[in-house]
Amino acid sequence: MAKKQTAAFQGERGAFSEEAARRLLGPEVTPVPCARFEDVLRSLVEKRVDAAILPIENTLHGSVHENYDHLQNFDVVITGETRIRIVHNLIALPGVKARQVRRVYSHPVALNQCLRFFTEHPEYEKHAHYDTAGSVKMLAEQQLRDAAAIASASAARIYGARILQRSIEDDRQNFTRFFLLRRPSDPRARRAKTARVTWKTSLVFTTRNVPGSLFRCLSAFALRDLNLAKIESRPLRGKPWEYLFYLDFLGHVEDPVVRNALSHLKEIAEWRLLGCYPQGT
Amino acid sequence: MAKKQTAAFQGERGAFSEEAARRLLGPEVTPVPCARFEDVLRSLVEKRVDAAILPIENTLHGSVHENYDHLQNFDVVITGETRIRIVHNLIALPGVKARQVRRVYSHPVALNQCLRFFTEHPEYEKHAHYDTAGSVKMLAEQQLRDAAAIASASAARIYGARILQRSIEDDRQNFTRFFLLRRPSDPRARRAKTARVTWKTSLVFTTRNVPGSLFRCLSAFALRDLNLAKIESRPLRGKPWEYLFYLDFLGHVEDPVVRNALSHLKEIAEWRLLGCYPQGT
What we know:
Number of domains of chain A: 3
Largest interface: A-B, 38 and 38 residues
Distance between the termini of chain A: 18 Å
Oligomer: homodimer
Number of helices of chain A: 9
CATH topology of the largest domain in chain A: D-Maltodextrin-Binding Protein, domain 2
Helix content of chain A: 25-40%
Structural class of chain A: alpha/beta
Shape of chain A: elongated
Number of strands of chain A: 15
Largest sheet of chain A: 6 strands, mixed
Low-confidence stretches of chain A: none
Order of helices and strands of chain A: EHEHEEHEEEHHEHEHEEEHEEHE
């Protein structure tokens, strides 16, 4: 793993995507925050960064559909994945006590994932902010001493704030899966198969809209005992009520059985490989 | 079709959902606007309205995932569907000329669907509002004469405004599919099969997470030449990286072939019927 790689991600410093970047690229990665997912992909394609980190699904909310569309629209390759448990913490400036807090800032989704905490603390007023880590940044910038934020532990560290209460989220089964993306021309995008690793392959396909066509596409995998990890449908632009399918399955593109499955799929569908990468843990 | 039925929908009077309500229940329907989708379903379940209208997918943006989750969480039955073409119009108060307009209000999604119009009119400033029809309502309430809104033709009619320019959306392949929902106890929820109508059936299922299980579930339909219209996966709560599948297929639940398919599906999956209804046009 090369040192001092740059990785674009959406959100402020301290976002869960930054944690994913460190997990995927090592602690020396230089994080490059971007305002929008589209900017993340553009940064990668325009060679302003070495890699991009994209959340693709969450176990409570489902797929990040915008990012599935970006995988189709930008020329990028998935070269890794990781799963981060979303732990929400109550964070305030150093010296601020819980009883001083009146307002709690965070992204609306994070506020909604801590409803039990707010029921136990009716004295706290919820305030929606554009970003979880950004709400800690705001505490620091405005030196708010009657407010707290809900964000990751690393957001507290980055902005010099303190955790008042750890893990206040309602549901601990809250995980987000992130992709590590590279440019197709990047030599790091081509990773030879190594043993002792479970490989995953992602692709996108379209097929004719006739009875049984999706079934026949899946047969290319099922008849070869290849395990599907995920299927996602997205609308096909310009063809109302037809769909693109994104598929993740276990196996390496160089496995003979995977080659056969993909050549079988070619007979019945148009597909494009999105990447082949070690399964995340 | 009974007269003077009440139908809950999300949004302000003049929303596209209200147009769907008239299409599904006739022009005499009494529209009941609600702030959130959850309120729409709650109104129906708590018997405050006769029916509910829910957008379920759009040909540009894909499924309305929140509403798929509501179908699972509320005890309701799909009894009809319709597809509405989303036509965005530039709307202003009577007497206001296009050259007087400085600001244009609408929901961010609608603003983003009229980008060509804004490129052609750099003199207009885009302003995000919480609702398309609500932005016309605001023009009327605040008597704004230097502003316009982007909304449906019926929003213009309802709030006494005028259409300055029709159909300013970038993509005419912009359709939204709506469901008509009833309480299961409502006699109108049980619709006998009639000829000359194409019927559609919707269900939700879970299956064991083993290789080929989705393929085997789809075989119940494919092996009987039943045509799938839509498949949608959603995360299964409490079981990270496992999924619920929502399926729409053509056929009436009382067709012998559909009965056989559902009994076959029962052997390999747990499923629940969401509704059987005439295919929308």
